[in-house]
Design goal:
It is a single chain. This protein is an alpha+beta fold. The protein is about 65% helix and about 10% strand. It contains 26 helices and 8 strands. The protein is globular. The N and C termini lie far apart (about 85 Å).
Length: about 575
């Protein structure tokens, strides 16, 4: 029941932060149907929007809490998209429903009494204070309503567990067969060692250092501190801590697991140089019986069981010709795109289909085309080497009109229309937001400072200078008043950051004067009389800075030789 506890704890966490709304919980609409041989196996096996939304919201929240950017539509190796996550969510939930179908066909569904007993046990285990119980009632209306949600999660976990136990053989000979087929990867994952090393540039130097240690001229720790070029370990005696065989380069790993504990190896060559290695501890195996003696073996059995279960799901789906009929339009389109992306012959046909959705017969953009259809056209056109064409740029411009805050869209628009005042403003707004997200978030600021050191401020100044330069160009151009006002606001924010980064009163005065100049231009463009109040406030800051300069000058004068005699 360990998995169930974890799943339910997560559900409780979601309830407390308010993810699941009442409308979502009462939703009975379907996100997808499960088909067998092209025929719907029944609505009871369909994926509800409630299930889909719950998993999607928790997934996106988890990624963002780890600092991962999630785009609405575009994805790549570093940034996932919500539509992409949505597709894999449907597939994941579809597998759950297919497993449920197998359970129903083979008498493996948990009984109502068994299910309710498990729900009560888990609720009582997790809801241990009146405060948590009160929060449950506030969010869900009653304990019973919350238990119904727990029930869904527990049922899925119990079904998976029952089916897994039914279809995955834990017979020792089956495990032995798997062990023999995968021994190299198992060794990489489960063989562990604790070792120290000294890294030097030449084999001769390594041999010399080894002789000094063996002649007791200095200890291994002292030699590491004195001679090792591995700056990450030399100051702690070359200690690498515990690592698995697969974590290290093969030459190093082989030397570690072939050597005796407590005996310094001969020089070992790798791409980094020559190593002297001293193994403090290690666990290795060559047979299943030896593997079974390790503390890690129970964890391996769990991994084995899950791996075999996943293989069974694939086989069962193929055997019964199961498929998922996706009912969410954007997710369905993503599935078609995903299926075609790896097959050039299919991609060409898909490209023609997406063009029909995006363009009217006269070549103009179809006003009924959805945001994701436009995005998909851009992605497929890129893959076909047709980016930069007039129709491609027109679609980008349309996307920019519809999604002006999407980072990828802004970047594409700036690449296609680098001279457009409106696009420049959007691009510089994005860059300024990035700077503000660093400066005003202590954790982010520390992270970037660790990466760039003192160069961070120089990089920020570089971006601010570029923003200021573009702002000046737009304000002095024939751009529309609306775009000019947006540019002025950008300039004002940039100047505030300039002032934040400097303690020099003279530099602050220059920034304040530039702010007044921009505010006066904004007053002319908008006629907003409240801007006069802002100008007065900035003038006040100028006077404060002048006073600071005067006081500093007077203090300096008081300390001259003439004044002290």
């Amino acid at each position: 029941m360990k998995k169930v506890y974890i799943a339910v704890l997560f559900v409780i966490f979601l309830s407390i932060i308010g993810f699941a709304t009442e409308d979502e919980l009462n939703s009975s609409d379907l996100a997808a149907n499960i088909l067998m041989g092209g025929q719907n196996i029944g609505e009871e096996y369909g994926i509800t929007l409630e299930q889909y939304n719950d998993v999607m919201e928790s997934t996106v929240y988890s990624l963002k809490s780890q600092g991962t950017v999630v785009d609405d539509y575009f994805d790549n190796q570093n940034i996932p998209s919500k539509v992409g996550l949505g597709y894999f969510t449907v597939i994941y939930l579809g597998n759950d429903q297919i497993v449920k179908y197998y359970a129903a066909q083979n008498g493996l569904l948990p009984g109502e009494e068994e299910l309710n007993s498990a729900v009560d046990e888990i609720y009582n285990y997790n809801v241990t204070t009146d405060e948590v119980a009160s929060q449950v009632i506030i969010n869900y209306g009653s304990v019973d309503a919350f238990k119904d949600i727990i029930k869904d999660s527990v049922q899925r976990e119990m079904i998976n567990e029952n089916v897994m136990n039914d279809v995955v053989s834990m017979d020792t000979e089956k495990i032995r067969e798997y062990f023999n087929e995968n021994i190299d990867s198992l060794k990489d994952s489960y063989e562990k060692a604790s070792a120290r090393h000294i890294l030097v540039e030449t084999e001769e130097e390594a041999a010399s250092v080894k002789n000094m240690i063996e002649n007791e001229e200095l200890s291994f720790t002292e030699a590491a501190s004195k001679f090792s070029i591995d700056t990450g370990t030399k100051d702690n005696g070359g200690d690498l801590g515990e690592f698995s065989r697969g974590q290290m380069v093969p030459e190093f790993s082989n030397a570690v697991f072939d050597s005796e504990i407590g005996v310094i190896t001969d020089p070992v060559k790798s791409d980094y140089g020559y190593h002297l290695i001293l193994v403090d501890n290690k666990t290795s195996f060559d047979t299943l019986e030896e593997f079974m003696e390790l503390e890690a073996y129970p964890g391996f059995l769990e991994d084995y069981k899950n791996t075999q279960f996943e293989k069974w799901i694939v086989q069962y789906k193929n055997e019964k010709d199961f498929s998922v009929e996706i009912l969410i339009p954007d997710i369905k389109l993503y599935a078609e795109f995903f299926s075609s992306a790896s097959k050039p012959e299919k991609l060409s046909d898909f490209y023609q289909e997406i063009k029909k959705k995006v363009f009217s017969d006269d070549g103009s953009i179809n006003e009924n085309a959805t945001d994701f259809e436009l995005v998909t056209y851009i992605q497929v056109a890129d893959m076909n080497g047709e980016s930069g064409t007039e129709i491609y740029n027109n679609v980008i411009l349309k996307l920019y009109e519809k999604l002006p805050e999407n980072i990828t869209v802004v970047q594409l628009a700036y690449a296609a229309f680098p001279d457009s005042p409106e696009v420049i403003v959007g691009y510089e707004r994005m860059r300024l937001n990035d700077i503000e997200s660093i400066l005003y978030d202590p954790n982010a600021l520390q992270q970037y400072f660790n990466m760039y050191g003192n160069q961070l401020i120089d990089l920020i100044y570089y971006v601010l200078d570029s923003i200021t330069e573009n702002v000046d160009k737009i304000v002095d151009s024939d751009a529309t008043p609306e775009v000019q006002v947006k540019a002025i606001d950008l300039g004002l924010e940039s100047l505030e950051i300039y002032s934040l980064l400097t303690s020099n009163p003279g530099e602050k005065i220059l920034n304040y004067n530039a702010e007044i100049e921009l505010l006066e231009k904004k007053l002319i463009l908008t006629g907003d009389e409240t801007i006069n109040e802002m100008i007065n406030e900035v003038n006040g800051l100028i006077e404060e800075a002048k006073t600071s300069i005067q006081e500093t000058t007077e203090e300096s004068t008081d300390l001259t030789p003439e004044a002290t005699n």
